[in-house]
Amino acid sequence: MRSSLAGRRAGRLAAGLVLPLALTFSALPVLAAPPPSPSSVTPDRQSSTAKDGVSLLRIVVPDEAAVDRLNSLGVDLAEYKKPLDNGIEVHAVLSPKEAEDLRARGFDVRGAISDPSDLAANEADRQSAIKSADEAASEVDTLTPLRAEWFTSLDDQRFLSVEVKSSATDAETVLTASWDSGRGTAPGSGGTATMSRFTDAGQYMYHRFNAPLSVAATPSRVTITSSRGGTVTVPVTKWLGERRKPPSRHYVADFVDHYMDPTETTGRITALASQFPKLAQIVDLPYKTNGYRRAAQAQFGTDAASTLYVTSKAYGSQGGNDISVALVKPDAASSALAVSVTGENVVVTLATDGSAAIGSTARQVVDALNADAAASALLTASTYRGNAGGGVVAAAEATKLADNLNAPPSIAREPFQMKALRIGKKRDGSKLGVFLYCQEHAREWVTPLVCVEAAERLLRNYAHDPRTRKLVDDLDIFVLPSVNPDGGHYSMYDFNMQRKNMTNHCAASAGDPATRNSWGVDLNRNFSVGSLFDGYSGASTNCISGTFAGPAELSEPEARNEVWLTTRYPNIKFAMNTHSYGGYFMWPPGAYKLPGRELLPRVDFGTENFFWDASGHILSSVQEWRGTGIWPGRTGPVPDVLYSAAGNSADEHWYSRGIIGWDFEVGADVYNQTTKQFEAVGFQPPFAEGHEEAMEFATGQIAILEVARAFAADKDRPDSRLKVTGRTGTSATFTFEIDEPANVYYTLDGSRPTLSSPKLTSSGMREGTQQLTVTRTTDVHWFAVDIAGNVERNYRPDGHGGNYRSQKVVVGRAP
User: Which of 23, 183, 343, 527 could form an S-S bond across to 652 if both were Cys, CB 3.0 to 4.6 Å?
Assistant: First the structure.
């Protein structure tokens, strides 16, 4: 593909596992006392008590073998790895006890990148922003005009500058300005433009144009209209100063001002589709999630042998939270163990011996509950983590079961209807499709903001920005802000370090209440290509592991929705999967088998070079926002820069459907000028940093659309030449140079080259073009094909023509 993108070549899928039971949990039950009842604790207070003191900590290890040891221990590693002079720095999600256990095992566990105090600050900021937005939404805003002026510059060209402040300070408030063409002309006859929200140090200041707008005639009045209902009309006065000519393109950005849960992001894209029906529509994905819901549970006992727990058959939100269980000691001696049920109240009368002491063991109580028809219709009883349950239980007052979920009532507990926003002037499958999807991992709070921001920019800039108009006119764009809505809600309201979805596939041995933060499936390990079930590395069969692949390939509705979308719309040929953190830019293959590091097939030479060339444009666009540079060492195929990730979505889409896909890891390390060191930002940085990450990587997503559009429009044929790079008396070495990313097919036996002929490859991982050696004078025949399908010289490899390229490589003398 010969275009403005050509020639710009620039030169994780966590392997983390949740700690196994032996390391993660003590031998004694964690929840000896029942958790607070949802009815008696506010959502905010419940949220603050459910984080378990978990922090994101640095671990410095001497070598890769130590990283593998952490994986074998089941440590929940982040998608981050940095070489140091004395080893390797990795980051892990650990409780204080887990950190202590690792130190006891000899690991160098260092300071926190983020801890519960950081979470509390984020939650407070978020709640404040939501409160402000809710208050603004409840009433029509007031618009206060600050300035409305026209002026001339250079060749007497007229410009318009307007500044207006809204009483609604949230980022969802959008102001639109329209102006006339002079005194006596119709309102709006001069033009219309969306205004940009200006903030400074995190505070809303006012709305303005990023640059003054060029106008054909001097306007006399301008009307500003708010999406909240406010409106004001003011006269336009002449400003006496002069300005340099503004940019020719008016572009609006910055549409997010707080971390958003999946209900919010889904509401945002739904509202956009309603506001721009000619350019966008909602696609309901067919597989509903399991929902933000859990069975209700209660646990009894103080040591493993005498502990039991009960789990409701119904979800907590569907009646499980109404069940209570009491363990009653009768006053009489030699009483028999008995179970009685009244409504949702279950009473276990414990057995006593001849001295009236309790004699029932945990196993006996469990068996009695499960054998009673009325009780077993309400709940299931289990001993503690597979223990034999031989210890004698203690009496306990009636205890309500609880699902321990803390989201407010506005978060639905039922299966979630996932929605994608489809953007395009022509949405009939005739245009090249691009799939932008975010938040496969719940704890990556910045990523859905990237998708939302990109969607807002595309639709709100369409009317006045030619570059945006070309993208929307020439592409079919699908935006899915949260692949993992259930996990996203759980991360936001219950356990901020939740990585997986909420579906519990654990058996009773790992199903007690204290393991609830470890349940779920890693959606980016649940796909069918290069999966754990095919023998690839980087996922787990352990249901409480952070990289649990699920019980089977594509077992989860969230993963099946991705496959459905990319299958239902076969015009999708490009994709971007946005994760955090570390500042990586990656592409397939993403997995290998051990031992031997047997990779999935590498992409071919032409496609690999296309990835590299496109990365130059995309990462330069990311850098435009605030100067963030993605390191070359963090750019490339996934295993080349990170590690194996069995069953990831990018491999699924590339190897199954030929979709050219990238992975962003937003949140690049930030350079500290004082310490002269790069510092990691974590999954949930303070929103000021998260906002900047969302802005810069949304710009990167727009750049991906530009790459896709250039690909779709590419009609230029590649041009190649043979270059001899070495010669001895008995051999000659040569390669091919091409003016754009393309594959070269060649023959050395004098035959006509076809698409079945040998194909040029890379010399090795990140090593450049393959070098070919011949030991006798050889006629080399070849042709090049770019990845858009354009063939050099318009040669027909499936025909009989001879307009391929040919050159004699001489051995034994100088040419």
Answer: 527
pLDDT tops 70 at residue 23: no
From the candidates 444, 456, 556, 665, which is the catalytic residue? Answer: 665
Residue 404 is encoded by which pair of tokens? 């321990």
Contacts of residue 433, Cβ cutoff 8 Å, sequence gap at least 6: 475, 476, 477, 478, 569, 571, 572, 573, 574
HEC profile of 45-58: HHHHHCCCCCEEEE
Q: Within 10 A of 44 (CB to CB), how many other CB atoms are there?
A: 15
3-class SS letters over 424-454 = CCCCCCCCEEEEEEECCCCCCCHHHHHHHHH
For residues 331 and 352, what is the distance between their CA atoms, to the nearest angstrom?
9
pLDDT of 48 reads 32
Q: Which amino acid is residue 546, in one-letter code?
A: G
- The pTM score is 0.82
Look up residue 207 and give its two tokens: 């709305």
* Residue 35: DSSP 8-state: P
What token pair was written down for 498?
């939740």
Q: How far is CA 781 from CA 31, 184, 716, 743, in A?
A: 74, 73, 21, 14
d(Cα 426, Cα 430) in Å, to the nearest integer? 8
Phi, psi of 361 (to 5 degrees): -90, 165
- In eight-state DSSP terms, residue 106 is T
- What region does 556 belong to: left with phi over 0, alpha with psi -120 to 50, or beta? beta
Element (H, E) at 268: helix 262-275
How far apart CA 398 and CA 344 sit, in angstroms, is 11
| pLDDT > 80? residue 155 | no
Give the residues across from 123 on adjacent strands: none
Please list, residue by residue across 498-537, b when 16 or more beta carbons sit within 10 angstroms of its beta carbon and e when fewer do: bbbbbbbbbebbbbbbbbbbbbbbbbbbbbbbbbbeeebb
Residue 105 Rama label (left phi>0; alpha psi -120 to 50; beta): alpha
Q: Are strands 778-786 and 324-328 parallel, antiparallel or unpaired?
A: unpaired
| 3 state SS of 339 | strand
Q: What is the DSSP string of 726-753?
A: EE-SS-EEEEEEESSSEEEEEESSSPPP
**665 included as an active-site residue:** yes
CB 78 within 8 A of CB 16: yes
Phi, psi torsion values for 42, nearest 5 degrees? -70, 155
In one-letter notation, the amino acid at residue 134 is D
| DSSP states of 649-667 | HHHHHHHHH--EEEEEEEE
Rg for the chain (alpha carbons), in Å?
31
How many of the other CB atoms lie within 10 Å of CB of 470? 16
Residue 224's H or E segment, with its range, is: strand 221-226
Distance in angstroms (rounded) separating the CA atoms of residues 341 and 378: 10
Q: What is the mean pLDDT of residues 149-162?
A: 78
pLDDT of 18 strictly over 60: no
Find tokens 């006996």 and name the residue. Answer: 364
What is residue 787's DSSP assignment? Answer: T
Residue 30 has pLDDT above 70, yes or no: no
Helix axes 687-713, 605-626, angle to 10 degrees: 140
Residue owning tokens 């996934």: 638
Q: Which amino acid would we find at residue 137?
A: A
Q: Are 512 and 386 in contact (CB under 8 A)?
A: no
What is the pLDDT of the chain when averaged over all its residues? 89
User: Could you give the CA distance from residue 234 to residue 232 in angstroms, rounded to a whole number?
Assistant: 7
Q: How far apart are alpha carbons 29 and 511 in whole angstroms?
A: 12
Cis peptide before 116 (omega within 30 of 0): no
Contacts (Cβ under 8 Å, ≥6 apart) of 103: 109
d(CA 793, CA 795): 5
Structure-token pair, residue 230: 């406010």
Please count the residues of the chain. 815
Handedness of CA 608, 656, 556, 455 (dihedral sign): positive
Beta bridge partners of 286: none
In this prediction, residues 790-807 reach a mean pLDDT of 94
Q: Token pair of 497, please?
A: 């370090």
